[in-house]
Amino acid sequence: MNIIKPISIISFSTLISACATHALFGNSTTETNTKTSIALQDQIVAIGHTSKPVKGFENALVLVGKQHSFFVQPNNDANNPSYLFQRIFTEIDLKSVYLAPSLGHNTTTQINTHQNNHIILELNEKIQNNRSVPYDASLYFIKASKDVSKNEKNQLLSLGFQCQTALEDYPQQTVCSREINTEITLASKVQNANSLPYKLKQPIDIQYKVTSTSKDYSRQFFKVLTPVTVAFDIVTFPIQGGIFLIGAMLGSPGGL
């Protein structure tokens, strides 16, 4: 008769337990669980600037949300000076200006083929100690070429816009675009949100998307997700936003 020694039974049990643990949890020294979540979302209903300067955000563009507001500031470098929005506010026809996500260089193709009407702010561990989130946006100036004066075009060029006329798809339009590298800061809701003279024809969705290995991302990104608490009113602009509105303004290729 074969007798199984107690130590052999113990060793076998230990082996089974170790295998089960590995199957459940994997190798904790090499595997991580990265998860993407929507930490905050809102809808932008208007665009403007503060009626009085807010310290630290004197030159900011303001996106008015239903629940919060969002200060948008240029990066303050050679291509994106801090005063850029202030010059745009005062020097060009804002009824012809559209705000959209950055579309890169092939503008016409992007407008014709994309219906992008949202802003997604990516939060990752590189910016967990920041107050603001980097975001690349584009401004478009679109107007019938016959209504664009030489002085107006020169003004746009001085602001860093690149202008095209007699485009194959839109031969009667002048289309100028400028990419702006910005930072967006979450802030409290504007005080006069219910009495704004200019609103977007179609709201823009905005989302803070977190990619993190931490379950407690609200603590990890505490600075970014905590609104700057400040009481202010806003002066809105007739600026519109989103590719939907740009496409609608231009009409079908060859139109207008």
Characterize the structure shown.
This protein has 256 residues and is an alpha+beta fold. Helix content is 23%, strand content 32%. The protein has helices spanning 6-25, 84-91, 107-113, 150-158, 217-220, 222-225, 243-250; strands spanning 35-50, 61-65, 69-74, 97-101, 118-123, 133-144, 162-165, 173-187, 204-212, 234-236, 240-241. Strands 1, 2, 3, 4, 5, 6, 7, 8, 9, 10 and 11 form an 11-stranded mixed beta sheet that branches. The chain starts with 5 loop residues before the first helix and ends in a 6-residue tail after the last helix. The model is unreliable at 4-12, 20-31 and 243-256 (pLDDT under 50).
